[in-house]
UniProtKB/TrEMBL annotation, chain A:
It catalyses: (2R,3S)-3-isopropylmalate = (2S)-2-isopropylmalate. Its EC number is 4.2.1.33. Signal peptide: none annotated. GO terms for molecular function: 3-isopropylmalate dehydratase activity; 4 iron, 4 sulfur cluster binding; metal ion binding. It comes from the Bacteria. Heterodimer of LeuC and LeuD. [4Fe-4S] cluster binds at C351, C414, C417. InterPro entries: 3-IsopropMal_deHydase_lsu, Acnase/IPM_dHydase_lsu_aba_1/3, Acoase/IPM_deHydtase_lsu_aba, Aconitase_4Fe-4S_BS, Aconitase_4Fe-4S_dom, IPM_dehydratase_rel_enz, IPMI_cat. It comes from Colwellia demingiae. This is 3-isopropylmalate dehydratase large subunit. Residues 11-464 form the Aconitase/3-isopropylmalate dehydratase large subunit alpha/beta/alpha domain.
UniProtKB/TrEMBL annotation, chain B:
The lineage of its organism: Bacteria, Pseudomonadati, Pseudomonadota, Gammaproteobacteria, Alteromonadales. This is 3-isopropylmalate dehydratase small subunit. One of its GO terms (biological process) is L-leucine biosynthetic process. It comes from Colwellia demingiae. It catalyses: (2R,3S)-3-isopropylmalate = (2S)-2-isopropylmalate. The gene is leuD. One of its GO terms (molecular function) is 3-isopropylmalate dehydratase activity.
Length: 471, 198
């Protein structure tokens, strides 16, 4: 046995991927898996063509159509000409550069961050990148996963590497166990409420503690997915038996002896017991209640049994001013009970909350309301994250539970999370959304987004307002 | 990428914290396959009163006549948070910005700016505050000297720092892909040692 300095999981992932740290240069890291989609890749392909450069490892690259596809039709032009142009460009680029593409209606198609894990493309101990900030999702497996810009997409295409400065490390420990009915979404929103929307800028965050270990892989993905929403470069959760059991047997995952060797290596990934972090945050799981955002960034969040805050509640002048402008944009009055806020749109979907467990949780709430229907004035849509999720949900009869209660059951895609297709809110619409961003105009110009769990979204659809399901 | 040496330009103050990339360039303008055509849509929802972008909002700072031709954006903290869309720096650059000053930037946005040759400069909160206080009263002109890492504004001067390689890349307009491709042998040697499952 050699003795060495104790390392965090991030440091181990860094060391095992460090190709070169040349003097005067930003360190060069190896990228194991590159996920691409139609919106952030075309300009990168164009530059490859310009320089006559190939994609170095097409087999490490996987493409899907997700951001601006229609959720009503698998026709490539169903969401408009702009979308169709990008989708066609992706198909041509993938063909020309030899990249596997899950195109419209393919059984493996879906949101990049949903299909990566479910196909076994996402593995512990790897570096995964994608031109999308929610790539942090894959950190749930103990992979260093982060979003990149189009110039970096081009760099990965051509070299299978990326230059990265080393981030600081933050440990977020959620002690004990959450109460009944508290979801992974509530855990991550409560964390962001505590740190603020830029609280982890410059850090890679590691989530740990009993409440995190108790989560399923789908729930862990929801937690890691929103790491970017408080500025973190990436979020990590140590792989354990839950992880290995999930990965084993997946289509693209290693098989047989190779898988067994992988598990041996993956077991060494977790942070050493005496590793030190640059920052530590601790939460008590029992204190976490169901969360609803009231403002225009994900840090402006409160428990459902709370009230809309007042600018006077904030001592920091920037937060005070942000509160004033958020209340104005959201059309809310300080002091209003969160449960008195009525919505007219409900969206259950996105890379945060569109997996099978999310749909089961939402359907479970619908069933609790025994035969009650979605409020007549509310449009409520359910958008599964992938064709595999859709198929699984339908085999369990979840689609019928939703449609019988008045929800619309759509085709997979990113949909209303960012509204690049025709799933867009109108000005003044108020939406209970299971997505990840409540920025001004995110779901449509002048629209108002409240971020919630799938359970809360389902309850809001049926009652018309937010509900303290545990009261 | 164009080389960056020094730049002198007019400053426009956007005193708002947490300006996200959805505000910088809303999603409906991302459906392009080229790198051009984004500048006209920069800050669309604030800059225009209507969805179609035909009615200019006279109250939005960038639209004010005294800031016409500004090439330096003085921004609030956590500028560029949110999505990884490089369309945000493309839009800023195409509008005419060469430099963004803020006390903090979101990580992905910061890297994207460097990669396209738009210089993001981090100053302290107090320094940024000082500039915001000056800007409404006078048309503020700044000079950014990248080789010496100094921002000067009349009598004031502020030091800033940049990662060594990023500084070199900006000053020399390095083709970062070409630079790394010169190290292909090192990358190949690394790949040979990777475990089978990886």
């Amino acid at each position: 046995m050699t003795t060495s300095t104790p390392q965090t999981m991030y440091e181990k992932l860094w060391q095992t991927h460090l190709v070169e740290a040349a003097k005067g240069e930003t360190p060069l890291l190896y990228v194991d898996r590159h996920l691409i989609h139609e919106v952030t890749s075309p300009q990168a392909f164009a530059n490859l063509r310009f320089h006559n450069r190939p994609v170095r490892h097409p087999e490490r690259t996987i493409a899907t159509m997700d951001h601006n596809i229609s959720t009503r039709s698998i026709k490539i032009d169903a969401a408009g000409e702009g979308a169709a142009n990008q989708l066609r460009a992706l198909a041509i680029n993938c063909k020309d550069f030899g990249i596997e593409l899950f195109d419209m209606g393919h059984k493996n198609q879906g949101i990049a961050h949903v299909i990566g894990p479910e196909l076994g493309l996402t593995l512990p101990g790897t570096i995964i990148v994608c031109g999308d900030s929610h790539t942090a999702t894959h950190g749930a497996f103990g992979a260093l996963a982060f979003g990149i810009g189009t110039s970096e997409v081009e760099h990965v295409f051509a070299t299978q590497t990326l230059r990265q400065n080393k981030a600081k490390t933050m440990k977020i420990e959620v002690k004990g166990h959450v109460g009944a009915g508290i979801s992974a979404k509530d855990i991550i929103l409560a964390i962001i409420g505590k740190t603020g929307s830029a609280g982890a800028t410059g850090y890679v965050v590691e989530y740990c503690g009993e409440a995190i270990e108790a989560l399923s892989m789908e729930e862990r993905m929801t937690v890691c997915n929103m790491s970017i929403e408080f500025g973190a470069k990436a979020g990590l959760i140590a792989p354990d038996q839950t992880t290995f059991d999930y990965v084993e047997g997946k289509e693209y995952a290693p098989k047989g002896e190779v898988f067994e060797q992988a598990v041996v290596d993956w077991k060494n990934l977790k942070s050493d017991a005496d590793a030190t972090f640059d920052a530590v945050l601790t939460l008590e799981a029992k204190d976490i209640k169901a969360q609803v955002t009231w403002g225009t960034n994900p840090g402006q969040v409160i428990s459902v049994d709370g009230i809309v805050p007042s600018p006077e509640d904030f001592s920091d002048p920037v937060e005070k001013e942000s509160c004033v402008s958020a209340l104005n944009y959201m059309g809310l009055t300080a002091g209003t009970k969160m449960t008195d806020i009525h919505v007219n749109k409900v969206f259950i979907g996105s890379c945060t909350n569109s997996r099978i467990e999310d749909l089961r949780a939402a359907a479970g709430v619908v069933q609790k309301y025994e035969g009650q229907q979605v409020v007549e004035t509310i449009d409520a849509i359910i958008v599964p994250g992938s064709y595999r999720v859709k198929e699984q949900a339908e085999s369990e009869g979840l689609d019928k539970i939703f449609t019988n209660a008045g929800f619309e059951w759509r085709l997979p895609g990113c949909s209303m999370c960012l509204g690049m297709n025709d799933d867009v809110l109108e000005e003044g619409d108020r939406c209970a959304s299971t997505s990840n961003r409540n920025f001004e105009g995110r779901q449509g110009r002048g629209s108002r987004t409240h971020l919630v769990s799938p359970e809360m979204a389902a309850a809001a659809a049926i009652t018309g307002h937010f509900v303290d399901l545990n009261a | 990428m164009e080389k960056f040496n020094t730049h002198t330009g007019l400053v426009v103050p956007l005193d708002v914290a947490n300006v996200d990339t959805d505000q910088i360039i809303p999603k409906q303008f991302l459906q392009k396959t080229e790198r051009v055509g984004f500048g006209v849509h920069l800050f669309h929802d604030s800059r225009y009163l209507d969805h179609a972008g035909t009615k200019v909002n006279p109250d939005f700072v960038i639209n004010k006549p005294e800031y016409k031709g500004a090439s330096i954006l003085l921004a609030g903290e956590n500028f560029g948070c949110g999505s990884s869309r490089e369309h945000a720096p493309w839009a800023l650059q195409e509008y005419g910005f060469k430099v963004i000053l803020a006390s903090s930037f979101a990580d992905i946005f910061y890297g994207n700016c460097i990669n396209v040759g738009l210089l993001p400069i981090k100053l302290s909160e107090a320094e940024i505050e000082q500039l915001f206080k000056l800007s409404p009263n006078a048309q503020l002109t700044l000079t950014v000297d990248l080789p010496n890492n100094i921002v000067t504004c009349g009598e004031l001067s502020f030091k800033f720092s940049l990662n060594e390689f990023q500084q070199y890349s900006l000053e020399n307009g390095v083709d970062s892909v070409g630079w790394t491709l010169d190290k292909l042998d090192t990358i190949k040697a690394f790949e040979e040692k990777m475990p089978a499952w990886q």
